[in-house]
Specification:
With about 325 residues, the chain is α/β, with parallel strands linked by helices. The chain has a single domain, classed as Alpha-Beta Barrel (TIM Barrel). The chain contains twelve helices and twelve strands. An eight-stranded parallel beta sheet has the order 3-5-6-7-8-9-10-11. Strands 1-2 form a two-stranded antiparallel ribbon. It is globular and about 60 Å long. The relative contact order is 0.15. The structure holds zinc ion. The site of zinc ion has 4 residues, from loops.
Length: about 325
């Protein structure tokens, strides 16, 4: 048993239940939304988010990992408001989401930069994990970084190394946004390993966008968990392909390295209107896994035990094993 930090406070890992490992609640550029999105009413959207999460609870999901970090519109007090109104546990993350540069507030600070000082990133992340996010007493439960098609740009490398260092200092597990089609999961693993991270502490996110079994097995053979986490984004990869890939991985003995999710959100300004979202990803919703993906997996021959491993045991172990390895260091 391990204590896992959520937006409502600490929780025993055995109480996590069924977990979606990569979701969002609000994704936005705060400045853009405040200036140009007249349709964003904070109170309304908090109520709507809580309503959607309660719906998810009714469909059997107990916990989501909200991977909305710096660069995606992170607002932990707003998440805390949602958490008060739903039974779903929300685990918040710390880290930074960028495909190239760092936000201006951090880009000029660090060794050899305008403000020549030790890189401030690891300390910011560690404080979120150990003390709480800014003036809240809500602590981040895990670390998040990203490496997409542009590869290891300088800002990306700084975040990856800082996340690795914060993992070594705190034992908090890591989730990485990767581009499976560009094989960036392997690059993330290489950099994190250089920082001393045990790759078993890492979920390689968006692995589920790929059907390349050789690539997926290479990532999993390093010990990391695969995030099969974009269910409902059928325009990126159809459901049948996502399911067939999972079935084959389970058959090959990787059932203990798979996790499920949607990468969904309640409100995002990446889409000008809800109609744009519906046109791009008509089926995407928080409930697509329980309502559509799980029945498809059962139909394809997966047992309830194999599904429970992906939804319950593997996410739980993600926290427990990282804590145990940290304690043993
Ligand atoms: Zn995401």
């Amino acid at each position: 048993m391990t204590q896992v930090q959520t937006a409502r406070g600490p929780l025993d890992s055995c109480e996590l239940g069924r977990v979606l490992v990569h979701e969002h609640v609000f994704c936005m550029d705060m400045e853009y939304t405040l200036n140009y999105r007249r349709d964003f009413d904070e109170e309304e959207q908090i109520a709507e988010a809580a309503r959607r999460l309660e719906d998810l609870k009714r469909h059997g999901v107990d916990t989501i990992m909200d991977l909305t970090v710096l660069g995606l519109g992170r607002n932990v007090p707003r998440i805390a408001e949602v958490a008060k109104r739903t039974q779903v546990n929300i685990i918040v993350a710390t880290g930074c989401y960028t495909f190239d540069e760092l936000p201006k507030q951090l880009a000029y600070r660090g060794p050899g930069l305008m403000f020549d000082e030790p890189d401030p990133l690891p300390d910011l992340f560690v404080r979120d994990i150990q003390e709480g996010v800014n003036r809240t007493n809500i602590r981040a439960g895990l670390l998040k970084c990203a490496i997409d098609w542009p590869g290891l740009k300088s800002g990306v490398e700084r975040v990856l190394r800082a996340v690795g260092q914060a993992n070594v200092r705190t034992g908090a597990p890591i989730s990485v946004h990767t581009s499976a089609r560009h094989g960036t999961g392997l690059e993330a693993q290489r950099v994190l390993k250089e920082e001393g991270v045990d790759l078993c502490d890492v979920i390689i996110g968006h692995s589920g966008d790929s059907t390349d079994l050789d690539y997926l097995m290479r990532v999993a053979d390093e010990g990391s968990i695969l995030g099969m986490d974009r269910f409902g984004m059928n325009e990126t990869l159809p459901l049948a392909d996502r399911v067939a890939t999972i079935v084959e991985l389970v058959k090959r003995g990787y059932g203990d390295r798979l996790t499920l999710s949607h990468d969904c959100w309640c409100w995002s300004d990446f889409f000008p209107t809800e109609a744009h979202r519906a046109a791009r990803f008509p089926e995407l919703s928080y409930c697509y896994v329980p309502l559509t993906a799980l029945p498809a997996m059962r139909e394809a021959g997966l047992s309830d035990r194999e599904i429970d491993a992906m939804q319950i045991d593997n996410p739980r172990r993600h926290f427990e094993d990282a804590a145990r390895r940290f304690a043993a260091r």
